[in-house]
Every structure is written in structure tokens, then in C-alpha cells.
Amino acid sequence: MKLRIALIALVIALLIPALAVAQQTLRGTGEGYIGPITVDVVMQGNNITEVKLVEFNETPGLSNRSRDMTIQRIVEANNADVDLVTGATQTSQGIIDAVKDALSKR
To answer: Which 3 state secondary structure label does DSSP give 66?
Structure first.
């Protein structure tokens, strides 16, 4: 009985690292309305878990909605093939291009 429990514990200990998926952060750049947009795309396996803005010089207020909605759409879709957000489309396109640039480095 003790041997069986020890073997089960050993198998579990060996399987846990194999089941864990490494987190990876990829950096990419796109062109916004005012200048470059740089993002960090956080990946957990093949899933986009977060898009962080590293460099973002777009017009405060005017670009907020586009920025937030574009990032939300990318994370929800788990890819950068999402619709542009109207109102600040160049900002939206710059974020999408930056994410695509980051993902191309996988």
C-alpha cells in the first residue's frame, strides 16, 4: 500500500511540470496616428492573456476608447485579426499591427 501511494505521488510529481504552460512575453511595434505604439503581448501557451502598452503617445481622451476596445477584442479573440474601432482608427490599427509584430516573433 505504501509503495502504491509512493508511486502515485511520483507520477503526479513528474506530470505537474509537464502540465504547466510557460508564460511568454513578446514585444512588437506598430505605427499610430502620432507615432510608434509598442506593446508587450503576454502569452500563456497559445493564449493571449494580456496586451500591455509600453510606448503609447496617442491623444489622451480621444484615443482611450479605441485603445481599450482594441486590446479587449484582441484578448477575447485570442488573435489580432479584429475589427478596427471607429473614432481613432489609426490608433486601433497601430495596436493591431504592434500585436501582429509581437506574435510574428513566436
So the answer is: helix
| Residue the block writes with cell 506530470 | 15
Domain membership flag for residue 41: yes
**Residue 59 pLDDT exceeds 60:** yes
Residue the block writes with cell 494580456: 50
Is 52 a member of any domain? yes
75 pLDDT higher than 80: yes
Q: Whole domain around residue 48: which residue ranges?
A: 23-103
Distance of alpha carbon 98 from alpha carbon 104, whole angstroms: 10
Model's pTM, two decimal places? 0.82
Please give the Cα distance from 106 to 93 (Å, whole number): 21
pLDDT for the residue 83:
96
Question: Residue 65's CB: how many other CB atoms inside 10 A?
Answer: 15
